[in-house]
Specification:
This protein has 105 residues and is mostly beta strands. It is built from no helices and seven strands. The chain has a five-stranded antiparallel sheet, with no helix packed on it. The N and C termini lie far apart (46 Å).
Length: 105
């Protein structure tokens, strides 16, 4: 596998001390080169787009919500092992939705 890097940029904006909006982008390089890609590890580079919000209900309670979409570059595979050939491509994407309630005491 190869060394890989992640590049990201994000921004947050606080409104009236109660509401905070956040957004960002990231690029993840895959550590899996074409030579080591398998049917179980169809990894490729990913671009993330994410946004979220935090709302302070009181001094002790906060609600956070977030959404991220990952655009995954199409991954190709063409391998022959033990006389069996596996050839094809993977088309992938990921959606992540999250919510959290925090209560301090």
């Amino acid at each position: 596998w190869d060394d890989s890097y992640r590049y990201s940029l994000g921004v947050g904006c606080n409104f009236n001390g109660k509401l905070t909006l956040r957004g960002g982008m990231a690029f993840d390089e895959t550590p899996v080169s074409d030579a080591f890609r398998t049917a179980r590890i169809p990894d490729e580079d990913r671009t993330w787009i994410a946004f979220g919000a935090q709302y302070r209900l009181s001094q002790q309670s906060v609600v956070d919500v977030g959404y991220a979409h990952l655009f995954v570059r199409d991954a190709a595979i063409d391998k022959t092992e033990s006389g069996v050939r596996l050839a094809g491509s993977y088309d992938a994407s990921v959606d992540i939705l999250s919510a959290q309630f925090t209560l301090g005491f």
